[in-house]
Amino acid sequence: MKPDSEEFGKPTTFEKRCNAGVIAALAGSVKTWFCLAGMAAGLFLAAAQPVLGQSSEPILRLEVGTHNAGVFSIALDPSNRILVTGSEDKTVRIWDISGKGELLRILRPPVGEHEQGHIFAVALSSDAGTVACGGRTGSPQQKDACVYLFDRATGSLTRRLGGLPGWVQSLAYTSDGKFLAAGTGEGGGRADWASMRLYRLPDYTVAAEDKDYSDYIKTVVSDPSGSRIATACFDGFIRLYDLSSLTNQDASSPRALSPVSKIRPPGGQRPWGLAFSPDGTRLAVGYEHTAAVDVLGVKGNALEHAYSPDTSGVKGGTVMDFRTVAWSPDSRFLFAAGSYRSKGDYLVRKWEDGGRGTFKNVPLEADLAALHILPLKQGGMVFSVRDGSFGVLSDRNETTLLGSQAIPNYHSLYDGFRLSSDGAGIEFAYKRGGQAPAIFEVTDRRLTDAASGLWKSLKANVSFQAPITEGLAVSDWKNSLAPKLKGKHLELDKHDMARCLAIKPDRAGFLLGVSSRLYFFNSEGKPMWKMRMPSIVHGVNTNGRVAVAALGDGTIRWYRVSDGKEFLAFFPHPDRKRWVLWTPSGYYDASPGGEGFIGWHVNNGKDQAADFFPNSRFRSTYYRPDVIDRALETMDEAEALRLANEQPGRKPAETASVRDKLPPVVAIGSPLDGAEVSAASVKVQYSARSREALSRLKVLVDGRPVSVEGIGQAPKASGELSVPIPSRDCEVSVIAENRHAVSEPATIRLRWRGAAAKESFEIKPKLYVLAVGVSAYQDPDMRLNLAAKDALDFGAVWNDQHGRLYSGVELKTLTDAQASKGNILDGLEWLQRQTTAKDIAVLFFAGHGINDTTGVFYFLPVDAELEKLK
User: What span, in angstroms and rounded, lies between the C-alpha atoms of 500 and 482?
Assistant: First the structure.
């Protein structure tokens, strides 16, 4: 078998390629920083490792500012202001949902390739200080799957609870704050991976465990008193545990735990969601792949079926379900949601009388199935969705999406996923069911959507082929757990749901996209290879030579049909303008604003939080349109890189590891984010990690540099800074530099609680403008008409602001003969020298620019010579 593929029943090893490099940045005293130079680097080949092992090398990841895959679990603090979301995209995010859903922090546990690191469960301690998360974390093969504990305020990983037998599927703190419950398991039906374990707080010692499970535990919940917990398992049973006997137990002697009641409710075989009523006397149950909801009575320590809410009107078999359930705080309403939809809308069903009464279907304004719902104390509920979004349903049945969808939705794409004959053009859609179609041409780097005036002509001149689904008698392949070839079941992993099909044009085999894998079978149904996918496969197509797959994380990826090897990936942002195209090692091309969508996840060991660095920080190495040009032609990244490097004029790249070129990482220990302040300065304690000595430290207040005593030319890796702040709410950021690059800012938000500043002391800032425009280039072929005029007009507009927005305006305009290299550099130095922390600086360039052979951008002064760029 080839690298990156799997033999059936046994994982193989794979080779992971990364390369490295870093942009060095110069931060002036103006708010805008100027990236000036870079260092070249080349291919770095890592040693082979187990497919699901935690990676010691940087991993290329998609980062779009919010979740880009299903949010399987959410948790609320007691005030209902803080929401924690855990996603299959391998991140945990903390949000302030009191307003518009502000992102407060991203928690990054250690991860590996493929499924390693998927987050399925999050829980928030009763004091809201600790975030527990788990999923495909750790190593069940070594009986060391784990739960990670993070400090919510600082984002630091404080502890790892290892030794669990299987993937973590569910987590819950008991309502009394005494225990953390963890449910584990694995979809393949391995009984030795399934257990329910209890940790005693505050030291998180193991108090008890029940190993009598035969499938994974999808949900664990605490009753309102904290004395009982219940679990829902895919073995079909609901179990109830009494924890009162553990309260006074010797902490040094964990014990076996057995349920006091165990019942198989009538609604379905795969119970998913559970919710205790506010008085603890009822337990609601939701199911996956079944449009049913049950309510169990809890009498003492016994469970019994009480009633089943009305789920009539739901059609679609296994496609529709009510998997997640919740009660209103007054028990008046019972909510249930999942994949139930009608007339294109995903719905939450809301029953009166705790599920006994009539119901109302309320649209969630979501494009995919709901995965988790929780009640809000003021009424209504908060929900999360498989597309990565989340929102709030108010007590007035009004839906507000707080974490909006930031990826295309390829669900039910089917015939709308089309491929050009050469494999270089794809037709896809931004919305479910093939709505809002678009075309991307790799060769021309052209993205065209149906609203464009070019759409009709492009469709008329370029032929795109829909996936072939007829000719080999493949059946039951659309949203089915049992696809067949000529009536015979195809060999899939347990719980893999078939979603899309594409037959080779010569009918010699076919591709089948499932929940998290892409399979290739020959015409007789023999599996030739299968590939783990970053997310659900919603669409697939092939021209016989290449295969393309549209995935649930919003990416579209190219693979070799011969062995399943990936060689190219594409992400189009839903704004229908920005995109990025990249190879597995991170070489990329992008639209303006698109390069920040990918970056490097760097593990720091199994007991430390990981770091993330946008690929744009390594632009001089990874920005390689020339490699992208050759990737589709060769279907081999290494060969594409070799051919690109052999082009005349390209300097050979040095060999280096990403880790050796990383920027520093800065953290602020105090004050905590959101702290209240009332003085003119604040003591900020910081720490910085760097493989190289720090060369500079900067402090920003509301994005502007401020003067801070004691930083010096050789900054320390940790210390305390006295930072002047304004008498209002503000943000304070600390930035560190080493010889390679500049760190991401460590930022805290401060709330002003001191006396209000008097208006008489308000001082308007000064404005400094440097405007450069070149029309009369010395090279006649480069001359322009309006660049110099634009610079003059731009400066004049700002000059009119003297005495209005600004106390004064200083303008320096360089046009044509004045805009030499030396004068422009002098102007930049003037701008940096004159602008203080209280002023505003504006920089304007009009003229020609050019990228050199390494991708570095240059603005061309009037005396530029293209043959002597250096």
Answer: 13
